[in-house]
Amino acid sequence: MRWTSLRADVETDGRHAEVAFGKNWQEDALRRDFTMNALYLDEGGRLYDPTGKGIADAKERRVRFIGQASQRIAEDYLRILRFFRFFAQYGRAFDQQDYFACVAAQKQLSTLSAERVGAEMVKLVTGRFAYGALEAMHKGGMLTSILGSVPHISRFARLQRLAKRLYMSPDINLLFAALAVDVREDAARLARVLRLPNRSRDHMMRMAQNVRTIRDVSEDLLQKLAYEHSKETACDLVLLAVVRRQLAPDLTDLSMQMRNLELWQMPVFPLNGRDLLDRGMKPGPNVGCRLAQLERAWVNSGFELSKRELLSKAYLRR
What we know:
The chain is mainly α. Helices cover 56% and strands 6% of the residues. A two-stranded antiparallel sheet has the order 1-2. Strands 3-4 form a two-stranded antiparallel sheet. The protein has a two-stranded parallel ribbon with strand order 5-6. The radius of gyration is 26 Å and the shape is elongated. The model is unreliable at 6-10 and 16-22 (pLDDT under 50).
């Protein structure tokens, strides 16, 4: 619940509206989008339902426009996405005629800013019933243009089912990667189209670049991935590989491995450039190259090689 003032629209162009403040519940309700969003509680605790459908629709989790859907949509074309976003969050039903009105008006989404579209899509894909909403959007022919690529609806559904079985909540980067990212270019395009943060773009690009190499899963692999990227990226990579059907691990084992990764203390590479110089290596770019080779050997050993053992592998005095 939130406090609000009563208002009525004076003029709208489908993106912005001029409003006048008033005292009429009915007028305020008529400028809102869905019946469940036109419920009011006054200071005395009395509940008002000016449309006569808000309470029933809220109980049934039915998304329904107030009045004529086409008119509500014309007042603000973002309501097309809000229609599906509310369905993704509440998930039981939507009005079929309202759905067709959204489909008919979908070209008007191009008049909206990428920031507004992206903000709605972020909320939508994190909804509990996001798969149903995305499927409806795809059947209506609008999802490909919104995402800038062909969506993987079934892959997204597998991720939702997997997350439920593992008692976890996928982050927005993994959700979008499952839905619309195959290669690095997909991640860059999706981030641009939806105005996602650079950190989201980079995270999805890392997943796209590395996921194809994952053909099995173990604690050793998770630790190596975590050291190279981060714990978050390591888990996301494995989950993405599962929903892409590259591997089919025992989910009980996978859940335990991920919990162990959370508790794992990231080791610190025991060498630095000074160690190599002190052992007689000449300064220059070869120091960095040799250090990187030794670090890979250390990682591949399961982080077990000691500083002495690493230096013995350096062959610095040849």
